């Protein structure tokens, strides 16, 4: 085995690699530096605490290197997985409910899965979701106004916050840039995180929709805490190691198969 590199030099080398050619996996870094994977994970955690790297499952990315992607870009990613998540999440909805639908491409997939339902009221801040449900005959659609974030196509700000403080919902479906079992939902901005907090406060049930690439990811520094008793719907690209910490927090988990022809996933 190679002689282990001192921790300080090793962390600088990891950071340099992340900002130049991109970060390798934990296993590759472990082999390169002659240390155990747990040592590499401690290195990544240290760099994360210093604000130099944002942690993801299995590795990390440089803070600020990857800007927030637009809704249009996100709609082209993990399409089958998001559609499957949307179908699975729709099974949680009961007739007569009043729903709050957050912004984001995965929540939009849920909106598409709800178009043929009836006796629902759907409230949303997201323009694409409102458009998707605007002609659904069995759904009453309500719009929350505010300041439009062009990158996400959703409303934020004090007008949206004031509206949410005067409403309640049976269930809220939230999107995320990352989901951590302890920190909650990662968002690109504090205004988005604050709005999610108000949605959660106003809702009887909280459901987070996140494809497997978001599990354990922390690309930004704004967070919405989830507390206890919430539900995660994700796709079958996730593995049990990723879900272990969520299960320890008593999160209800639903896995949706990503195959287009598959039946909606089952609770686990």
Automatic annotation (TrEMBL):
Keyword line: Transcription, Transcription regulation
Parts of the chain that traverse the membrane: none
Molecular functions (GO terms): DNA-binding transcription factor activity
InterPro entries, sorted: Carb_Metab_HTH_regulators (IPR050313), DeoR-like_C (IPR014036), DeoR_HTH (IPR001034), NagB/RpiA_transferase-like (IPR037171), WH_DNA-bd_sf (IPR036390)
Domain HTH deoR-type: 7-62
Gene3D superfamilies with a match to the protein in the record: 3.40.50.1360
Keyword Transcription regulation set for record: yes
Domain of life, per lineage: Bacteria
Record's protein name: DeoR family transcriptional regulator
């Amino acid at each position: 085995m190679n002689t282990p590199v001192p921790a300080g030099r090793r962390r600088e080398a990891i950071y340099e690699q992340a900002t130049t050619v991109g970060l390798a996996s934990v296993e590759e870094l472990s082999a390169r530096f002659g240390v155990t994977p747990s040592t590499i994970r401690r290195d990544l955690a240290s760099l994360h605490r210093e604000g130099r790297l944002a942690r993801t499952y299995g590795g990390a990315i440089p803070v600020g290197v990857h800007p927030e992607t637009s809704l249009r870009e996100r709609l082209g990613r993990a399409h089958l997985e998001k559609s499957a998540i949307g179908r699975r999440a729709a099974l949680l909805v009961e007739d007569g409910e009043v729903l709050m639908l957050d912004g984001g491409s995965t929540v939009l997939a849920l909106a598409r899965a709800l178009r043929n339902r009836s006796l629902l009221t759907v409230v949303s801040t997201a323009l694409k979701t409102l458009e998707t449900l605007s002609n659904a005959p069995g759904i009453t659609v309500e719009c929350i106004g505010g300041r439009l974030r062009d990158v996400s196509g959703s409303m934020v700000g004090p007008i949206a916050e004031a509206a949410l403080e005067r409403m309640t919902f049976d269930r809220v479906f939230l999107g995320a840039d990352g989901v951590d079992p302890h920190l909650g939902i990662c968002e690109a901005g504090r205004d988005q995180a604050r709005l999610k907090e108000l949605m959660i406060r106003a809702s009887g049930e909280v459901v987070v929709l996140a494809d497997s690439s978001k599990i354990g990811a922390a690309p930004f520094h704004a967070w919405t805490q989830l507390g206890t008793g919430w539900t995660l719907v994700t796709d079958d690209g996730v593995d049990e190691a990723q879900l272990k910490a969520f299960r320890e927090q008593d999160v209800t988990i639903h896995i949706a198969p990503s195959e287009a022809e598959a039946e909606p996933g089952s609770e686990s």
